[in-house]
Design a protein that fits this description.
Strand content: 5-15%
CATH topology of the largest domain: Rossmann fold
Structural class: alpha/beta
Shape: extended
Number of helices: 19
């Protein structure tokens, strides 16, 4: 269908014609009239089908004139990655050339100050990644009280990247009365839950079967040993004279290593991944788009939303762990009706990942072998796995702690079941039973001296008592006896004491 029949105003139609677009894609044909009516939309379509224009064109028309001078934004577009945010904002700026609407991007990895300044100056449209936007909103630098239209682009990818918490927080900061558009390449259970939460009586728009690769992309698998992948990729680039190729790796470390290897082979290549600064990622992507470098090595950070004109090759150097990511990766080629080739280098270890992808696509991918790059047979692969297990077991046994002897176990017992005592406990028990050991010479001398002192004491007392009787004067001994007699109630002793005193 022509754009003329979708209800767009003349200014937007002229802009679309200047961009060279004449016929609307299926998602644009179905979504634009519904969005212009102010309805919520739940849209599903494979990558490269023109989803950005499907929501950008009617959104620009609904906004009308700008109110951005010192005013908070009226439209919020959330995207999963910085690259996609930049691309969506550029598309909005291009489609809105005939309007005075102001748009900006908000994402992490760059300085806060320029973003805060643009927000303070006033914008109509924010295209943002959830993390940085939430930071600015908490600081009251990004005010979301006037949002009229909320757009969630690549919502499934945002959930996969763990942005569900940030999205929930942002939803509480924007008005409940709004128009919400949710676009996703797949409709998982999590997406359905999110749609129930954010959409009100939405129009369901799905223009292609879920989990289906683009029809104009040829897919091929090259079986190869893991250690030969880099050599095979270098050979394909040089012998086939690839003009441009986007190569996906599983890890940031793997992307950097592959880039260094290809550079040594004389291939113009750059890499983008999470460890690169945003400026470095932008420069690498622009050099790739402009043909300055032939190969761009990337992690899945670039799997969504990259719109690269005339990209003929996409290579899965490492197979993706999640089968759906395969569809998003190869969706970078064969866009806008053009053809492309998706190549997967599959080692024996990655065969299960390939089977998951084929099960998702409900089709088998063509397998081609290249001379000189023979993959292991099943027997060779299984024997290699056995060797790996043996080595791992030896390593574990080497560092495994030896069990303690029964005499020093964790339960504080000896081998015969009795309680084990430490030195201090043994010494204490030995002092509690002096009869079980012989007395030392020093102890015998002390006891002897003590006995002598007691005998001397009793002799002195007896002599003192005799002296008192002879002299008739009460002495100490007699006083003590009197006190004892009194305490014990011995009346006879008291009388004898008194008679003694009377004498």
């Amino acid at each position: 269908m022509s754009f003329d029949n979708l209800g767009l105003n003349d200014n937007l139609l002229n802009t679309v014609r200047e961009k060279g677009y004449t016929e609307a894609t299926p998602i644009q044909e179905k979504a634009i009239p519904v969005i212009l009516k102010g309805r919520d939309v739940l849209g599903g379509a494979q990558t490269g089908t023109g989803k950005t224009a499907a929501f950008a064109l009617p959104m620009l028309q609904l906004l009308g004139k700008s109110q951005a001078t010192k005013c908070p934004p009226r439209v919020l577009v959330l995207t999963p990655t910085r690259e996609l945010a930049n691309q969506v904002e550029r598309s909005i700026a291009q489609y809105g050339e005939s309007t005075d609407l102001i748009s900006t991007t908000i994402y992490g990895g760059v300085s806060y100050n320029p973003q805060v300044k643009r927000l303070n100056d006033g914008v109509d449209i924010i295209v943002a990644c959830p993390g940085r936007l939430l930071d600015l909103a908490k600081q009251r630098q990004a005010v979301l009280d006037n949002v009229e239209i909320l757009i969630l682009d690549e919502a499934d990818r945002m959930l996969d990247m763990g942005f569900s918490f940030e999205i929930s927080k942002i939803l509480k900061m924007i008005p409940e009365k709004r128009q919400t558009l949710l676009f996703s390449a797949t409709f998982s259970d999590d997406i359905k839950k999110l749609a129930d939460k954010v959409l009100t009586d939405p129009e369901m728009i799905e223009v292609s079967p879920q989990n289906k690769a683009a029809d104009n992309v040829d897919q091929v698998v090259y079986p190869v040993r893991k250690e030969q992948k880099r050599v095979l990729l270098s050979k394909l680039i040089r012998t086939e004279k690839w003009s441009r190729a986007l190569v996906f790796t599983k890890t940031k470390f793997g992307a950097e290593n592959l880039k260094d290897f290809l550079v040594k082979d004389g291939i113009e290549v750059k890499a983008i991944h999470g460890n690169k600064s945003q400026a470095a990622r932008n420069y690498a992507l622009e050099d790739f788009k402009n043909g300055i470098v032939n190969v761009l090595v990337a992690t899945d950070v670039a799997a969504r939303g990259l719109d690269i004109d005339d990209l003929p090759y996409v290579v899965n150097f490492d197979m993706p762990i999640v089968a759906q990511d395969y569809i998003h990766r190869i969706g970078r080629t064969g866009r806008a009706g053009k053809t492309g080739i998706a190549i997967s280098l599959v080692s024996r270890e990655e065969q299960p990942l390939l089977w998951k992808i084929e099960k998702l696509l409900k089709t088998e991918i063509t397998v081609q072998e290249i001379d000189g790059f023979r993959q292991e047979t099943k027997a060779e692969f299984e024997s290699a796995l056995v060797l790996q297990k043996i080595k791992a077991k030896k390593k574990d046994d080497k560092f495994k702690k030896k069990p303690r002897s029964p005499r020093r176990n964790n339960y504080g017992q000896n081998s015969d079941g009795t309680v084990r005592l430490n030195k201090s406990e043994k010494k204490r028990q030995s002092t509690d039973k002096p009869q079980d050991r012989r007395k030392s010479k020093k102890e015998e001398e002390i006891e002897s001296q003590k006995k002598k002192n007691e005998d001397n004491h009793f002799r002195r007392v007896r002599s003192a008592s005799k002296n008192e009787k002879s002299s008739g004067k009460p002495g100490k001994a007699q006083a003590n006896n009197f006190s004892k007699a009194k305490n014990n109630g011995n009346r006879s002793k008291m009388r004898s004491g008194s008679r003694g005193r009377s004498r």
